[in-house]
């Protein structure tokens, strides 16, 4: 025990001193806690969450994974994460991750761009267009279809909660507890909690999702050039059939997803409302977003437009180069930020968590347990 601090349980002040403290119990925070423990079993880990496990962006996520990346680092992360989730599902078939037939549509003149973005060997040209929730899609002349292997989607909130439940015997969860201050020093980091307690850790992971402007860390995050964007998806009130798959409109950066466990489809489009803070803002569907999303959908499936009157709205953190950020932010390199996954935080979370765990538990750290 005590892999990082070198202190055994008896020397620690009960539950106020740990090796690694994770701030934020979304998919990134929970997978990082898991990655830390699998790197260094016996290390003491606490997760601090202002609300409840999976109460942030992870609760609203559409949870779609497809094997795509806009750059080489993102493709590397997508590939790692795909293998990770596959192994996780193999370990426990009850996890709410569901393999999905996925079809990508794009102008045939842009097929070469598709081949650059998707992982090698995952695209297969097809003449069979997906029927979708409204029968035949209305596609512009010159649209091509590709079937994609490796697609899946998850109930991200349920998955995060399941992962947290599995972690609980080894990890102390502080829910309903906000991190109010963070003081980093050369040997440890002190977290001031809303409960009045102080939690001391050798290393801290900041996984705050879109809560970038929290006074506890905004001086650090403001230097990263991150921004927060609204993310909107409409619910299409039509029951998916068990065999229905996802349809990705590549050129519009939009997709239709059958959400089998909720009994409806979802239409995600790219909302361009920037600099919407997570904290202190209510996130609702407004007439503007409803009209924007419907006008994109109207091009392909006009019959569905009247079925879209509700949806899910939140926000996510975005980085300047659209590659997630994982790295130290304090002078002593004891506070690691992980996130800004640009609306892809579910599908890239395992890779983000693995990178973060390497920084939190460098392999050179000697294990103090046998
Ligand atoms: C509508 C929508 C659809 C999406 N669809 C997809 C998709 O299809 N595929 C995909 O890959 N991604 C998708 N995303 C993005 C994905 O959901 C996010 O990138 C991901 O959930 C981020 O996870 P996280 O753990 O970094 O953040 P979060 O889940 O937001 O977790 C951060 C946690 O930190 C906590 N916190 C904040 N401040 C404090 C504090 N001071 N003290 C303690 N705790 C604090 C919050 O309460 C929160 O629970 C979607 C997002 C949205 C909103």
Secondary-structure map:
Elements: E1 17-23, H1 27-39, E2 45-48, H2 57-60, E3 64-65, H3 72-91, E4 97-99, E5 102-107, H4 111-117, E6 123-126, E7 143-148, E8 152-154, H5 156-167, E9 171-174, E10 179-184, E11 189-193, E12 198-206, H6 218-221, E13 227-236, E14 246-249, E15 254-259, E16 264-269, H7 287-300, E17 310-318, E18 325-328, E19 335-339, H8 345-360
Parallel strand pairs: 1-2, 1-12, 2-9, 5-14, 12-19
Antiparallel strand pairs: 3-8, 4-8, 5-7, 6-7, 10-11, 11-12, 13-16, 13-17, 14-15, 15-16, 18-19
Task: Offer a concise description of the structure.
This protein is an alpha+beta fold. 24% of the residues lie in helices and 28% in strands. It contains 8 helices and 19 strands.
Search tags:
370 residues, alpha+beta, FAD/NAD(P)-binding domain, D-Amino Acid Oxidase, Chain A, domain 2, globular, disordered C terminus, binds flavin-adenine dinucleotide
């Amino acid at each position: 025990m005590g892999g990082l601090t070198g202190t055994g349980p008896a020397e620690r002040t009960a539950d106020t001193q740990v090796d690694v403290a994770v701030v934020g119990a979304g998919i990134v925070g929970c997978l990082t806690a898991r990655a830390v423990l699998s790197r260094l079993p016996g290390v003491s880990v606490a997760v601090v969450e202002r609300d409840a496990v999976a109460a942030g962006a992870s609760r609203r996520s559409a949870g779609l994974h497809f094997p795509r990346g806009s750059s080489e680092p993102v493709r590397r992360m997508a590939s790692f994460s795909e293998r990770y989730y596959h192994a996780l599902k193999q370990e426990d078939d009850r996890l709410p991750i569901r393999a999905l037939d996925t079809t990508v549509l794009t102008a045939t003149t842009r097929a070469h761009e598709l081949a650059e973005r998707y992982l090698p060997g995952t695209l297969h040209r097809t003449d069979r267009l997906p029927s979708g929730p409204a029968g035949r899609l209305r596609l512009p002349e010159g649209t091509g279809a590709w079937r994609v292997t490796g697609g899946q989607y998850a109930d991200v909130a349920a998955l995060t909660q399941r992962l947290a439940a599995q972690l609980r015997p080894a990890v102390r969860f502080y829910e309903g507890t906000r991190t109010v201050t963070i003081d980093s020093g050369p040997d440890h980091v002190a977290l001031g909690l809303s409960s009045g307690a102080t939690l001391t850790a050798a290393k801290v992971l900041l996984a705050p999702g879109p809560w970038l402007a929290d006074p506890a860390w905004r001086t650090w995050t403001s230097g990263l050039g991150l921004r927060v964007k609204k993310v909107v998806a409409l619910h299409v009130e039509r029951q998916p059939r068990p065999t229905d798959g996802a349809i990705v409109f590549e050129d519009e950066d939009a997709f239709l997803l059958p959400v089998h466990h909720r009994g409806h489809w979802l239409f995600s489009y790219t909302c361009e409302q920037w600099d919407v803070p997570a904290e202190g803002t209510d996130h609702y569907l407004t007439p503007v977003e409803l009209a924007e999303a419907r006008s994109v959908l109207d091009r392909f499936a006009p019959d569905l437009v009247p079925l879209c009157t509700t949806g899910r709205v939140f926000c996510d953190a975005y980085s300047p180069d659209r590659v997630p950020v994982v790295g130290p932010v304090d002078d002593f390199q004891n506070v690691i930020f992980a996130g800004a996954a640009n609306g892809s935080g579910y599908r890239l979370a395992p890779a983000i968590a693995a990178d973060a765990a390497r920084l939190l538990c460098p392999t050179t750290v000697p294990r103090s347990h046998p």
